[in-house]
Amino acid sequence: SGTLDWKTGQIALNSGALTGVGTSGFTPNNTDGVAGLQNSTRYFEVNLRAAGTISMTDTTATIDRLNVRGAQSGLNIKSGSSLTTMISSYVDAGFVRVDGVFAPSQLNVLGGVVSGNGSIVTKTGVLVASGTLTPGAVGGVGTLRISGGAGFGGTGVLGIDVASPTSADRLIIVTGNLVLGGGLAVNFLDNYVPDFGTSWTIATSEKGSISGSFAMVAANLP
């Protein structure tokens, strides 16, 4: 028991379980290891390139860096879960949905979609240079909180869903400043057409300032 037998090209496990990178249910999580135990120190950089969604459920983990690079790749940080990255993380394509807590040192959105009803807690902010950041689910109203500030530029887009005169997405900057640039894309849900003069608060900065303006504004109004 506890040994691995090699039989006809397969590993037969008599007892115990395989663990580690590449095995089912494995969660990357940095560790300083155990003194005197060889190869017990582990630090992870996670790259998502293949099609599919990874979900974190009731999980807390710390890694070095997250890179989402596949057009069909996604990470879902569910409510009750938390992912911390020690250095800057990148979303180049695909998506990251944050309904729990995502705590990168800095988050750089260079493509894809970042969404959710949770909290993004950074040291140096969220930079949306391309791609889209949208509170709530895509196509649904919600609130996303960011600590450390946020800035939009280049072809970066703030996506806002609006459902009624009293229901719209909201981006809350808990700490730091909000710098506007790039574009604003407004999606009116369920064929809702607002009356002239209707307004919504779609972004606030609780302790900092809001500066700049959107270079482009688009909406799906008829």
Distance between the termini: 69 Å
Over the alpha carbons, how many angstroms does the gyration radius reach? 21 Å
Main sheet summary: 15 strands, mixed
Structural class: mainly beta
* Poorly predicted ranges: 1-18
Sequence of secondary-structure elements:
EEEEEEEEEEEEEEEEEEEEEEEE
Q: Please, how many helices? A: 0
Polypeptide structure, described:
This protein has 222 residues and is an all-beta fold. It is 0% helix and 50% strand. It is built from no helices and 24 strands. The protein has a 15-stranded mixed sheet that branches. The protein starts with a strand and ends with a strand. The model is unreliable at 1-18 (pLDDT under 50).
Short description:
This protein has 222 residues and is mainly β.
Strand and helix layout:
Elements: E1 4-7, E2 10-13, E3 45-48, E4 52-56, E5 60-63, E6 65-68, E7 73-77, E8 82-85, E9 89-91, E10 95-98, E11 101-104, E12 107-116, E13 119-121, E14 126-135, E15 143-147, E16 150-152, E17 157-164, E18 167-168, E19 170-175, E20 178-180, E21 183-188, E22 203-205, E23 210-212, E24 216-219
Parallel strand pairs: 3-6, 4-7, 5-8, 6-9, 7-10, 8-11, 9-12, 10-12, 11-13, 12-14, 13-15, 14-16, 14-17, 15-19, 16-20, 17-21, 19-22, 20-23, 21-24
Antiparallel strand pairs: 1-2, 17-18
